[in-house]
Protein 1
Amino acid sequence: IKKAYRTKSLHHHPDKDRENPLAPALFREISKAYASLTEEGARKNFEKYGNPDGPVQTKVGIALHPAIVSSRSGRLTFLCCFFAVIIGVPLSVVCCLGGHGISANGVSGETLRIYHAVLGSDVS
């Protein structure tokens, strides 16, 4: 294991493999694999969490086009559109429904008519 680690780590070391932009990531993966194979604590973490470093937090984000994020006007336009959708869509739904045909309990008048038509004949 040690011989294979030394060979791979020398081959993919960021200082030795400068042309490869993935060399730092490969070197980290090789180091983690070696640690999980040789250290008992890292092995237990790998078996339990799938990572020799132990539990890690998940980073969540959204991908935006660089043109949106890079300029101030792009960010301002994005924020305006975002808030227009967040506020505009619910507001338009409320305005279109506008309480027309809604009972005091918030149930649609059409639903109440169907409910009473079906159950009204059975109840009486």
Protein 2
Amino acid sequence: DVTFHPRKTTASYSRNPYLSCRTPNMVVGWKDFVVHAALQSDEVLGACNGTAKCERMRTECEVGSYGQEGEWCLSCPRGATCGGSTAEPIAKKEWWLQNGTMEDDCPAAGSPEAVELDGFLAALDRFHKGG
């Protein structure tokens, strides 16, 4: 799905014409890219050297999803915010991230999760008290 955007000029703004496209789902990362238009071509293939042209050839997750290099973008889990790009989900207030999922209930008293949490909180308290 390719769209041509013509030159746009106003009294205070001018933008050159450009093409945009929507691709099928693909993993996060650098992509080879070739455009053939008006008897001209432009391509970025192979290793990326950090040029501005090259920076545009990287797919990243949209806001509301997350994923790292080589991974598929996943929808943001309930109880988290996802800023897109390659950022990991961030737990909302009163939620936490555990084993890749968001949890909203406190662990049951005496459960392995509660014991682990109690130990972590006790260690954190000792650290802050200097002991």
Protein 3
Amino acid sequence: MIHPFSESIPPSRRIPYHQARNATYMLQRRDEGSWDGSQTALAEYNPTIVPLTDEWDADLKNAITGGDPNVRYIQTARASNLHQCGNVVMRKQRGSGAAREHSYLVLTLLDQDL
């Protein structure tokens, strides 16, 4: 990992990095559910870091950064409780049980140190 996790996912809902390939752990977290029926654990997928250069439209850049000159990059990712990557067990569980799929857009503003 070359950058810290986004703060947009509460630690209580994050899948720990060291458990990311542990299907047993993932399914256990899935079965826990939560008050709104969603799965407890979320993971970030496909993070992308884009530099906010002078080529950006000035109004758009200002709207994104709030005018903060320290913001140099924007990170985007998808946070979800389900995935389709490689693990057949997780694919078979899609849509079963009390939990339902939730996906969120993650946006993180980063300074020059990322």
Protein 4
Amino acid sequence: MSKRPDPNFIPKQDTGPLAGWAKTPLELKKGARGPKGWQLFLGTSVAIMWGFSRVGYGNRKRSEQKLYERQEKYSLAPLLQSEADREYLMREVKLMDQERKIMSEVPGWNAGQSQYYNPFRWTPAHIMDSAKSNQKK
């Protein structure tokens, strides 16, 4: 069985003295405790503006670099295109010779001419070497 506490019991609590605690020499002195609000605002504003100027400077340098690289690519484009055209013509001649040899016995066959001939519009043939097309993947 549990025992109930006495209802007339008043607990004692530790409290400070009635006159208060004695003053200590470690108390903080009141006075200037750092920069004022407007000084903090001004300092952070300057730091943010400086940071944005650096970001803008970096963006400008990056765009100049990209423009320079684009100009280099544009100056190389004709050379690369002529190289691709030369390779295309070499493959076309090779495939024409192959077609001429394979279809030599078919009467009326013109090598290189599409069966779906359209004289008004030229489109490059989809070329794939027969050696590559016969390879298993």
